Amino acid sequence: MEEQQSPDTAGGAASVKTEEVGKEKPADTAAPDAAEEEDEEALPHSEILDIFEEGLARLVQDPLLCDLPIQVTLEEVNSQIALEYGQAMTVRVLKADGEVMPIVVVQNATVLDLKKAIRRFMELKQQREGGVKHVSWRYVWRTYHLVFQGEKLEDDKMRLKDYGIRNRDEVTFMKRLRKK
Hints:
By secondary structure, the chain is an alpha+beta fold. It has a domain at 73-175: Phosphatidylinositol 3-kinase Catalytic Subunit, Chain A, domain 1 (Ubiquitin-like (UB roll), Roll), CATH 3.10.20.90. The protein is 52% helix and 15% strand. It has a five-stranded mixed beta sheet with strand order 2-1-5-3-4. A hairpin with a 2-residue loop joins β3 (144-148) and β4. The radius of gyration is 30 Å and the shape is globular. The N and C termini lie far apart (107 Å).
């Protein structure tokens, strides 16, 4: 019996040695990966930004995405793609000064979703143009209504479809009447 155990022990030792050798080989192959990572990290931040902006410029040149601004956000790209696939709609919001804001919302959006999309649109616009730093949206929604074909969009939980709003329909900001 002892003779049978000794070959097993010897085989076990041999298998341990091959495992150790096997462990050394992946460590050697890991060294080139580390060198590649160092090369990637060696690029200055400005060059990485340039590469990113070039890729973004090519992306924006796509016929489906050509309507987007140069400093496009991921949210804007996703909403434009959803619009092309029919998963979203554009609601044109008319301000008192005559400016039309194209707001993209999903097909089953609520009035609250539209209000949030208007807020995001205005914040991005102000950020790009360097306009007013802060807008009190609480004041805006207490002072103005959103109106579609003479009907006020008062219920934030109601869907836009329930008001009859479809793709490319126009919604206007209308000043609320003061109660005396």
